[in-house]
Design brief:
The chain is mainly β and 195 residues long. It has 1 helix and 14 strands; from the N terminus they run ββββαββββββββββ.
């Protein structure tokens, strides 16, 4: 079977994604003007060594205005045969989803769903195939949130369609942070006391 790997680009023109070494619970911070900074602590440095071998275990925090881009790597098993792997198309999706754990009926609602075709139907012959993707100028109006009853989640999903078999899918989470602009000056508060 084909192994799918998703690698997100974290640096580039106007892009500065910050790695997070754990999945945050609730919001990242209660202040809307607080920005996540990359400051590895000694505890995180020990986990960083584990993530060098598997970079996909890292979760990256993006600003709401950032484009989501990267590459999809498809690896064929090394069996010694050169007959290849036939597929019916490879698509990449960017999905924003609201998950409701204790909700009867529909357990999730997709408020963002974009799809791009990475490859038309054909054969994979190489042991490793790299396909780039980019989702540009998207509306990420909600901040990522992981609560007890409701979660807001963004993720990239790659789907490889097969003949007579269910598709092979792989997902990679993306954390989105909304950073507000602080006011230029504090307005005076008028204190009026009535008796």
């Amino acid at each position: 079977s084909v192994k799918i790997d998703i690698r997100l680009e974290t640096t580039g023109e106007g892009l500065k994604a910050v790695p997070i070494y754990h999945i945050p619970s609730w919001k990242l911070h209660k202040s809307p003007f607080w920005q996540l900074q990359e400051r590895p602590t000694p505890e995180l440095m020990s986990t960083q060594q584990d993530t060098v071998s598997s970079p996909n275990s890292l979760l990256y925090a993006y600003d709401a205005s950032d484009d989501i881009q990267g590459v999809v790597i498809l690896r064929l098993p090394l069996t010694g045969t050169t007959k290849g792997f036939e597929h019916l198309g490879i698509t990449c999706q960017f999905i924003g989803r609201i998950d409701m754990t204790n909700h009867e009926g529909r357990p999730h609602y997709d408020f963002v769903s974009l799809s791009k075709e990475l490859a038309p139907p054909g054969h994979l012959f190489q042991s490793e195939t790299v396909l780039p993707f980019k989702f540009k100028n998207m509306d990420k109006e909600l901040e990522s949130y992981r609560g007890r009853n409701v979660s807001i989640r963004y993720f990239v999903r790659v789907k490889l369609e097969r003949k007579f078999l269910p598709p092979i899918t792989h997902e990679h989470d993306v954390w989105v942070q909304l950073i507000g602009t602080p006011p230029t000056q504090d307005e005076a508060i008028k204190m009026e006391v009535g008796i």
